[in-house]
Amino acid sequence: MKPSVEVLELEYKNNNSEVMEKRYPVILRKFEMRDGSGGEGKYQGGNGIIREIEFLEEMTVGILSERRVFAPQGIEGG
After folding, report:
1. What is the C-alpha to C-alpha distance for residues 54 and 35, in angstroms, rounded to an integer?
2. Confidence (pLDDT) at 78
3. Which residues lie across from 34 on neighbouring strands?
4. CA-based Rg of the chain, rounded to a whole angstrom?
5. Is 33 within 8 Å of 49 (Cβ atoms)?
6. CA nearest neighbour of 5 among 26, 24, 32, 31
7. How far apart are CA 20 and CA 27, in angstroms?
8. What gap in Å lies between CA 2 and CA 57, rounded to an integer?
9. Would you write out the chain's pLDDT as a tens digit for each of its 78 residues?
10. Rounded Cα distance, 1 and 65, in Å
11. Do 53 and 27 touch, CB atoms closer than 8 A?
């Protein structure tokens, strides 16, 4: 059995890339806004992000995300 590691979940979902790279054997290759992903309509939602992570050794990870299967409800065409 491999040892477990502390989960990197702070009080916000946008974890600092330097902290992640220091604590775990990973390199953050891409971290950018996903332009235009907030939708259209009178009131646009916030844009999402693209995060590309290289794992330097074998590990098991969990991803906390939302709106991947069911799209958010829009208002007035959004």
Report:
1. 23
2. 56
3. 48
4. 16
5. yes
6. 24
7. 8
8. 13
9. 455 454 555 445 566 788 888 888 999 999 888 888 777 777 777 788 888 999 999 988 887 777 667 766 666 655
10. 28
11. yes
